[in-house]
Amino acid sequence: MTNKIKYYKCFSINMLRFIKIHGIRAVSKGVHANGKTYWVFEETEELSEVLYKWSEESKRRNK
Fold first, then answer.
1. What pLDDT, in 10s, does the model give residues 15-56?
2. Residue 39: beta bridge partners?
3. For 11, phi and psi rounded to 5 degrees?
4. Taking the domains of the chain in order of start, what are their residue ranges?
């Protein structure tokens, strides 16, 4: 059985900065057909935790 690596595309510069502050580096960078830049991260438990923190902080900022 092979473990398939999953990837997460981030289109937000603010989210990118938040992820990088937590010590996670993008594995790639690209430009979508619509012209927007995105960054690619390996989906890991650590990234999931950081994205959860991002989501929680976003909820507080948007109240």
1. 999 999 999 999 999 999 999 999 999 999 999 999 999 999
2. 10, 29
3. -105, 0
4. 7-61
Mapped onto helix, strand or coil, the DSSP state of residue 62 is coil
Residues 10 and 38 sit within 8 Å (Cβ to Cβ): yes
d(CA 26, CA 46): 13
Query: Which are the contacts of 10, defined by CB distance < 8 A and separation ≥ 6?
Result: 16, 19, 26, 38, 39, 40, 41
Query: Which amino acid appears at position 3 of this protein?
Result: N
Which residues, other chains included, contact 18 with Cβ-Cβ below 8 Å and sequence gap of 6+?
Answer: 50, 53, 54, 57
* Helical residues (DSSP H) of 1-63, grouped into ranges: 13-21, 45-61
Which run of H or E residues covers position 38? strand 37-42
Question: Residue 52's pLDDT is what?
Answer: 97
